[in-house]
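Q: Structure tokens for this one, please.
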Amino acid sequence: MGQQADHRKMRDMMDRILVGGDIPVTLRRSARARRMTLRVARAGGEVVLTLPSRTSLSDGRAFAESRAEWLRRTRAEMPALQLAEHGALLPVEGRLRRITPAGTRRVELTDEALLVPQARPAGVVVEAWLKHLAQARLVAACDRHAAALGRGFRALALRDTRSRWGSCTHDGRLMFSWRLAMAPPEVLDYVAAHEVAHLAHMDHSPAFWAATGRLMPDYARHRAWLRRHGHELLAWRFRL
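A: Here is the predicted structure, written as tokens:
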């Protein structure tokens, strides 16, 4: 048991390096990678260095060190992690609401507050409520856009994804981040239109963007909002 624990500890140490003296970087090997890449998570600032299978650790370390100042600057610009707890101002459909304990049996939304049962853990309750809200809003939006496009979808699922807000498979299965319930309604609607347009065009060709534009003529504005503010939604944590 002790030897196994020591082996895991050594492996974990080898999977992480310090760059610039103070920046922890997680190392990942990928047989599909053709070049070294550095990625900074949009929430929390975790840094991941992906290396092709045959790239040496010393080359990977040198690559990361050469970008230490960029990493430090990018991490500094990331929003601080936010905990969904009593008193926190949480965005709900694009508007800040204060999470407030109340003598209610279920979550209630007002103009200024998100009322949660006071005897239950706020984060867990709010996360579940946001998922239900996202499901309802996205099903309605996708039904509407699919009818306009003349294409049906097979299923709709929610995930807590970090790299994409939605996706569409070749067999018509749609997936969305439930955190879209925190974004303005028109932004959620844009992501729904975007993924539904993939039912007709499984790429990002001019034909795809033309289809998206027919479903939502002003989509560029909402796409820009997501690019500017999406990382703020990812910064929220709902449990310790």
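A few notes: Residues 2-77 form one domain. The chain has a mean pLDDT of 90.
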